[in-house]
Each structure stands twice: as structure tokens, then as C-alpha cells.
Amino acid sequence: MAYKDLHEFIKALEDIGQLQRIKTLVDPELEITEITDRISKSNGPALLFENVKGSDMPLLINAYGSKERMALSLQVEDLDDIGNEIMDLLQLADNVPDSLLGKVKMLPILAQLSSLFPKIVKSGACQEVICMEPSLDKLPILKCWPDDAGKFITLPQVYTRDPRNGKRNVGMYRLQVFDHNTTGMHWHIHHDGAENYRLNKEAGNSVIEVAVALGGDPAIAYAATAPLPKEIDELIFAGFLRKKPVELVKCKTIDMEVPADAEIVLEGYIDLQESRIEGPFGDHTGYYSLPGEYPVFHIKCITHRKDAIYPTTIVGKPPQEDCYLALASERIFLPLLKMQLSEVVDMHMPMEGVFHNCVFISIKKSYPGHARKIMNALWGMGQMMFAKFIVVVDKDVNVQNLSEVLWKVFNNADPKRDTMIVEGPLDVLDHSAPLPLFGSKMGIDATKKWPGEGHMREWPDDIVMSKEIIDLVNTKWSEYGLD
Q1: What's the rounded Cα separation, in Å, for the pair 277 and 279?
Q2: How far apart are CA 456 and CA 465, in angstroms?
Q3: Mean confidence (pLDDT) of the chain
Q4: 393 to each of 148, 399, 416, how far by Cα in Å?
Q5: Residues 278-297: what's their mean pLDDT?
Q6: pTM above the 0.70 mark?
Q7: How far apart are CA 275 and CA 296, in angstroms?
Q8: What is the average per-residue pLDDT within 359-377?
């Protein structure tokens, strides 16, 4: 069953011993970050701070901070299960039967999918308390790192519309608190929220209405981070993940709908002629992202539950909680990648590359230059364009094992022959690029080389023990007294 709200997810975490309640008074300025950073790096539990200085609201953090908790948040045993389910549906769509009887047999499946579309309800817990004179001061918003420009809301679901067709978009963009009712809106140029902003400007509109929801079923928060095509509604995807439609309630002051069971909702607008310096901010790269001009979000109304819990996260040098949100995307969308590139065996985006700087790909190599074909194909796919390093290895290499991949790179790659450098768009957070948003990327072919690729020497075999000896030692292991 889907989680109705964040409270149900917290109970699920507590039931399996993955939640620690902290009753000691803590400061949202730096102290919570230091506590959480230590817990994140020691693979510790989710934290519920029940006594936060300056606020009556408890604060939840590190809720997604492990592979186990990420799977629990989406209610699966293994994150790969979701990707496999998506693949099954896509294969079903490719094999629609021609006969009338076959089409009739598919109706229950189609009806089940259509029932996952979001639906409007008359009321929701997120509007139990309505504040028409809003103040962010009542929320336990964190200042995460010493050189941050201020307090930041770090786990928001930001709702906007495409002015051409009214299509909803949900993204996750940090919000720097400027004062009690205005924040920054950190829209990178490549994001769908930023495109909706530009489209409203081009349409001659003076403002763009924005809603920000905090909390609700974790599937909704994850969907806001997922690398979906703009044509796919994040809330339909969330409905698919939770096997139940997301219930929405109309906002009180703007033309927008938000999850009825969210904890907190901020309603407001962005003046399309207004911008302000936002940042610096201690980011997921492990460095401070630089200040820049960004839109300003004006809050007209805040609604929340009577027993609201403030969900948040910190980012910084990995591992942090966001690493596991990114891991979910890696596993969920791998089957879609394999559908487009059938030679791909597995993919991994190691946290050392902060999930966009580096991609490991294993392939079934079939012809000379195959690895280069994969590199170019990946750089042409959506957010893969940000991958600064792509490493391609043979099908038998475990790309989930960083040491194994690097062993292949250092031993199989000739720097002149096996590297390819191209130029193109980069993530705005890449401080090493000579220009903002643009720079070079490297592909490394760490596969076994063929004569057709200019390798005329004999390629040596890996050292592998014979199966007979492995089986013998396995059967006698207890006799050696080495356990």
C-alpha cells in the first residue's frame, strides 16, 4: 500500500529500527548539519529532531540516506524492481495483440494504469492551518554550512505550469530564504522549471505562479528529482511508483494543485522582471556553488498540517542523502537506457563523481570502436549530456565495483588511443569548466582492444584460478581453520 503521508513513512522507518528520535535542543544553524553529516558518513539512521531552536515543528532528515531506506520509501525490495516493471510495460506496448480478444485482455492493465493519474479532492491535511500573513520564521529551516549565504529550503517540490498548455511540472530546486516571505528560486538553465519561467516571459506574462510542497508520500519527493522527459507528468510517475493516484487539493491563493497530504505548502509567485543574487551554497559537489542572479519567489500564503513535520536534507561531500536519491534514478532508468542501447549490460554513476560527473558503462562489445559509439550516444541523451567522464568496460566487469573499474582503466587504456575529448554543455555546478555551463568531456575506452582498433600485439588473459581448484578449496575450507 502507498504511504498516505510522511507520518506513515516515519512509522515504517521506526518499525524497522531505521529512525532515531532526538529530543535534545538543537540549532538549525550548522549544528543539525554537523550531526547529520557524521551520521550520513557512518551509514546511520534517519533522524527526527523533536526540539529545534526557534520552531515548534519537528525536523526529519536523512530519511533516504541508505539503499535500504530508499527502497523502503518506494516500497520495493530492490530498486531494480521498478525499472524491470517499467520495461515490462514498454514491452507490452510494443506487443499489442492484433486480435480483438487480445486487445480486450489488455483492458484491465490499461484501466489499472489510467487509475494512477492524479485526482482532485475537496480538502487535505496540508490545509488544516492557513496563514494569509505568511512567515517562514516558523519553519526550522537550516543554514547548512558556514559560508552559505543564509538559510535554505533543500527538499522542496516546486510546482509550475507551461503557459502554452497548462501542463504541470514538479522539480526540486533549492530556495534561499531572503526574509520572512521571499526566497530565491535556484532554477538552472537546463531545468524544466527554468523553461516554464522563460516561456512565461516570452508570452508577455508579468508573473509566474509557483507552489512549493514539503512532505507527503516519499514517492512524490523522489519523482520531483527523477530525470523524466518534460512530456511526462511527475505526479503520474509518482502514482505509478505508489500504485495509487496522488490526491491533489487546490491552492488557496493561486491556480495550482498540490498534494493533499503534504506537510507544508508555500503559495506565491515570481515577478518575471525581478532577480537577486542567490548563494553561495555548500553543494553536493563538496564545494560551495558560486553566487548568481536568480528569480525571487514571493510567498502569499502558507498552509500546513496541525502536526506538521519539516522534511529537509543536507548536501555536501558524499556520501549524503542525495546520493541514494540519485542511485534510485540510476537503477530505475537503466532498463530505458538498455532499450535504446541494447548492448549496454549495466551502468553505475559513482558517488565520487557526484552522480553527473562520471558514468561507468559495461557493454557487449561487437565491433571496433563500439565503446566510442556508446560514449557519443550517451552524451546525446538528456541529462547524460552533463557526464564529464564516461568509462566503458567489457560486459564481464562489475561496474558497481569502483576498484574493479579503475583496475581496468589503468591497465587497459592507452591514453593516446583510448581517450576521446569532446566539448559541450556541462552542469552549472562544474566549477572546473573554463566557462559556465560549457566545457570539455572525456570518454575512456577500457575494453579489451581488437586488432581493428590498432592493437596489433597479443592481448593477455586475466588471471583466473581453475574451477576444479576453486571447488576443491570450497569443500575443504573448514579444514584449513581459516574462518
Answers
A1: 7
A2: 27
A3: 92
A4: 40, 8, 17
A5: 94
A6: yes
A7: 6
A8: 96
Question: Taking the CB of residue 157, how many other CB atoms lie within 10 A of it?
Answer: 26
How large is the angle between the packed helices 100-114 and 80-94, nearest 10 degrees?
Answer: 140
Q: Rounded to an integer, what distance in angstroms lies between the CA atom of residue 360 and that of residue 337?
A: 13
Q: Provide CB contacts within 8 A for 55, sequence distance 6+.
A: 28, 138, 139, 140, 310
Catalytic-role residue among 5, 233, 283, 418: 283
Distance CA 257, CA 119 (A): 10
The burial of 38, by beta-carbon neighbours within 10 Å (0-12 exposed, 13-18 middle, 19 or more buried), is given as: exposed
Which residues, 6+ apart, have CB-to-CB distance to 134 below 8 Å?
180, 181, 266, 299, 300, 301, 302
Q: How far apart are CA 466 and CA 22, in angstroms?
A: 54
What nine digits make up the cell of 39?
551520521
pLDDT per position as a tens digit, 45-71: 999 999 999 999 999 999 999 999 999
* The amino acid at 232: I
Class for the domain spanning 341-453: alpha beta
CATH fold of 6-311 reads Pnp Oxidase; Chain A (2.30.110)
Enumerate the domain spans of the chain.
6-311, 341-453
Tell me: the pLDDT tens digits for 226-252? 988 888 899 999 999 999 999 999 999
Quickly state the pLDDT bin for 103 (edges 50, 70, 90). very low
pLDDT above 50 (res 107): no
Catalytic residue at 162? Answer: no
Cell of 202: 516570452
> Region 19-39: what's the mean pLDDT?
98
For 138, phi then psi, to 5°, come to: -80, -10
Residues 65 and 142: their CA atoms lie apart, in Å, by 18
The cell numbers describing 48, all together, are 527526527
| pLDDT value, residue 106 | 45
Query: Residue 250 pairs with which residues in a beta bridge?
Result: 257
Residues 303-331 as b/e (b if ≥16 CB within 10 A, e otherwise) read bbbeebbbbbbbbbbbbbbbbbbbbbbbb
Measured CA to CA, the distance from residue 196 to residue 179 in angstroms comes to 25
Type of residue found at 23: K
The b/e string for 454-482 (b: 16+ C-beta within 10 A; e otherwise) is eeeeeeeeeeeeeeeeeeeeeeeeeeeee
The grid coordinates listed for 399 are 561496474
DSSP string for residues in 78-101: STHHHHHHHHHHHHHHHT--SSHH
* pLDDT at 471 (0 to 100): 97
